[in-house]
Each structure stands twice: as structure tokens, then as C-alpha cells.
Design a protein that fits this description.
This protein has 18 helices and twelve strands. By secondary structure, it is α+β, with helices and mostly antiparallel strands. The protein folds into two domains: 9-237 and 406-475, no CATH class; 238-396, no CATH class. The strands form four sheets. A six-stranded antiparallel sheet has the order 7-8-9-10-12-11, sandwiched between helices. A two-stranded antiparallel ribbon has the order 1-4. The longest helix has 29 residues, at 447-475. The chain is globular and about 65 Å long. Residues 1-22 have low confidence and may be disordered.
Amino acid sequence: MPKTVETPHREASQQHVEPHAGTVPEDVAGLFGGRGSRASRRAAGKAERQRVPRAQFATCTVEDRDPVALIEASNSGRVPNLIPIRYGRMVANPFAFYRGAAPLMAFDLSRLPCTNIIVQLGGDAHLANFGLFASPERRILFGPNDFDETLPGPFDWDVRRLAASFAIAARERGLGAREQRAIVQRLCATFRQCMAEFSAMDTLDVWYYQFGAENILAIADTVLERKKEQAVISKARQQSSRLVLAHGTEMVNGRLRIKEVPPLVCHFPMGNRKEAKQFNDMVRRFFAEYRLSLLGSQRSLFDRYEMVDMAVRVVGVGSVGTRCYEALFMADGKSPLFLQVKEARASVLEGYLPASKFSNHGERVVNGQRLLQSASDIFLGWSRTRADGNDFYVRQLRDMKGAFDFSTFDAEDFSEYAVSCGHALAHSMAKAGDPALICGYLGKSDAFDEAIQQFALAYADRNEADWEALKAAVKAGRVQAQKE
């Protein structure tokens, strides 16, 4: 038995923790595919059902564990004064808890049956980690948009995390078990059917495929639904560095500065000129190394910009406490570029799967994003702070990004959103893995869908119990939660 509860996250993530026998395959290369005919690879996927029958995915019985201890372990290495904000966000409701509880689910999944069909996982594939983003050609696309935990692993791990998130979010909106099951089944049926379609496509066509805003609008069943979705898409088109400049900056002593919103956005305290010089030197080195991670043509574009300001920024739920910054660059004195600099720690999956092959976790995140998204930010890159050895990845802070407000969803909204997420997840796995293998395993029946539906509702129960445990820990003073 691995001593996950007692081992700090940063230490545990540096080694392969042996799971229960018969769960995570020892050879993570598994059935990665890419060789042989489509028919033979589908047959190999189908043969995997003999080892792990699809019905086994209904299983949600794992040993008892202390959820608070596992969350506390994942705080290792985080900024101490931000950890109470993390807890404050997690105790808000069961879905907010789920967003921050990826370490718990990684622990649980490692102890449940899983296939030997390996893909590049997003690693934290809940419904709030899907959204709108821009292609370099300025098309609005839809797909996964968070890759902090990306790592190769069994394809079913991402499916189960996404399915459970729909059950939890739907329950939070007051939808009953019957409606939750219908939503999850539609998600899984879409995933299975799209995977079958991708498995029949030309390999390059799969790579070039894009699921765009027009696809989302086509899914809408009513004019009202299309209008609501069009509003979100239109808002995403307006998101840009120019908009951040207009609303997120101010002039201070004649200099353009990022506007502070304590404790979520604030500047570094500079006690004297020596500290300021040391900070500026560190930032210059950091971005010089980041520049080298870009393609040559993108380096030329980045060289047109000059850094103006940098500030600390608190983001997300599970990410709270990790180091995150926003940096303002300007070209021609009037063209802004806002970059988000986000710490990349070891994936929560690395305690249960082989560690990343990349020496920099920022590069791991960037590689995963480029594999899983149909198109990626042209400023996507990575670097490391030499003083403390922390890894980071860099991307545009806002670049035509948008998200749907599922806190207002009704059953039909969830059902339509499930189609979009199921389609996007299938494409990500088909692009980064072998759709023929996965298609062969899934088959044509709804056996897989039924099993995942049962798992999702059972895991929603488990998540709610874990949330109650965290609330009790806050009430007892075991952990401190801060309201914003």
C-alpha cells in the first residue's frame, strides 16, 4: 500500500507509486497504437475487453482514505498565505470542491480497474476545464483548456473525471438522478460515436480537424439556446490584450501599471533599488529562456515587445497557492501583450503513473496542450526561475477565451454541453492517441456508456462526502479557509 496520505505531494510525485494489482498497467506504453492496420488495432482494442470488461467501469468502491490529508499533502510547495484562499474556494459547494480535488480522484482512479489503452491525458478533464479559445487564424474553437496535470495514462481516466463532473454539477443545479444519468449517457454516447468517426478518418484529417463555434451552435435545439451560446461566443471574440489594457491597468507616476486587486492581483514588494535590480535581472533571464522555447518566427514577433510591468495573480481553484503572474508587454508604445506565467508542478497523476519524460514541467504542460488542442496559442512556451528552480509555462492571459456559465444550466443546457465536451474529448484523444484502439474497446453498444453513468453518480456521492469532510475540518480548525 502506498503511503500517499503521509507523503508530501512534491515528494510523492517524483516516484512511481505502485497501485493495487490489476489496476494501472505496469507498462504505461500499453496499447499506444500507431502500428498495424486499422482493423488489427480495432481488434486489439476489442481484445482489451477480455482483460477489463466494460462493465467494470461501473465500479466506484475503493478503500477509505482521509480526503483532507490528501489535499493537505498537495499543498506542499504552494505559497503558504494563499492556501486559505484555496480552501475558501473549495468549501463553497461540491463542484468547487471537485475542481480542487484532482489529487483525490487520482488516488481513487489508481485503485480502480482501467484499460491498458494509453493516451495523452488532460489529467483534470472536468467540464469547467473546457471552453472557447482562439486558433492562430483567429477562429473560435472549443475544447479542453487546462493542462496542468497532463500525462500519458489510461484513456478512461479522463472520461471518468469528465462524466463525474457532469453528475456533480447537474446535482448542484437541483437535477435528479434520472436527469443526471441521461446527461452522462449523452456525454458517453457522443464520445463513443465521435471516436468511431475519427477512427475511420485519414490520420492527417484527424490532426487538422477543428471543433469550432459553428459546431456548438449547430447542436442547439432551440433559437433561444443558440442566442445564449452566440452571446458567449461573441463575448469571447472581444477578449484580448487590448481589453485587459483598458480595464486592468492604470497610470501611476506617469508609468503604465497593472491595476492591483488585493489579494488576487498585487505587485512584488521592492524594499530598495538592490532588490528591484535583482528582480529585474531574474525576470530578464526568465523571459530570455522562455523566448528560446518559441518557434523562430514567434521569437521574431516576441522581440517586438518590451516588458512594462509584472504582478502576482491568483487563479482557479486547484491552482490557488501555486505561483502565477501576469506580465504586460508593449510594442510601439501602444500595442499590448499580456502573458500569464503559471507554475507547472509535477502532475497529480505522477504518484500513480510513470513520471514525466520532460525535465521541465512547463514543457510537459506545453507538449500536452499542443497534442490535445486542435490549435494552440502562438505564445505558448516554458521557462524556469533559476533562484528557486520552479518550472513555469507561459501563454496569453486572454486571447479570445470564453466559458459557459454552467451554474445557470438546466437539464437541456447540460445535455447540449455534454455533446460539445464529448466531441471535444474524443477529438483530443484521437489526435494524441489511437482512435482505432479506443473505438475497438468501446464497441457499438452502450455497455461502456452505462457503466460510466453508474460510476459518475456513485462518485458524485463520494465527492459530496469528501466536501463535507473538508467543511468539518474547517469548522474544527484543522485547516483555515479564507473568504474573498
